[in-house]
Design a protein that fits this description.
The chain is an alpha+beta fold and 172 residues long. The protein has 4 helices and 7 strands, in the order βαααββββββα. The model has no long low-confidence stretch (mean pLDDT 87).
């Protein structure tokens, strides 16, 4: 079976979200990271608690403490805005309009494997070369490595037949 399709930046965002979930789920030190986050938030809470206690009892320090609290709050807000903007910029620049992901792709699947062809070249992967399979409402993801996948949109005409072929040949 053969199909031609184009992926979109929205497909890339879905892939990135899936990879983030997969990374968090498979993190070897997950309990350690969680404990570290809890410890950090406990320190922040203790610091705020001490700050409030000092603020309540030190009348002559109130103007200076308000200034410190304002600077801290502004820094926290700027940090949140910075990371949100950084993530948005990364997602916007992570794929090139002239790159393989957004170019017109043609796939051909048979009992041996999957051939992918686009403007940059072609690649054939035997079914044994796929490590796992995942899907969401829009796409089918064929993983060739733990964080690298071939994305197939569910809108291609032969998706039902292709999904069946993929599930028969990939042992997830």
């Amino acid at each position: 079976m053969k199909a031609t399709f184009n992926l979109t930046p929205a497909d890339f965002k879905l892939l990135m979200a899936l990879l983030m979930q997969k990374t968090k789920r498979n993190a070897p030190y997950r309990p350690l990271w969680f404990t570290g986050e809890v410890f950090i938030w406990m320190l922040i809470g203790a610091g705020i608690s001490v700050f409030v206690k000092i603020y309540q009892h030190a009348e002559d320090l109130k103007p200076g403490l308000l200034l410190v609290a304002s600077v801290f709050a502004a820094a926290l807000i700027l940090r949140i805005i910075y990371f949100a903007a950084l993530r948005k910029m990364y997602l916007r620049r992570a794929i090139s309009p002239k790159g393989a992901f957004l170019s017109t792709q043609t796939i051909e699947a048979n009992t041996e494997g999957l051939l992918i062809e686009n403007d940059q070249g072609k690649s054939f992967t035997r079914w044994a070369g796929f490590l796992s399979l995942a899907e969401d409402k829009s796409n089918l993801y064929l993983f060739v490595d733990s964080l690298e996948a071939i994305v197939l949109p569910k809108t291609i005409p032969c998706i039902a037949e292709l999904t069946k072929l993929v599930k028969e040949n990939i042992s997830a």
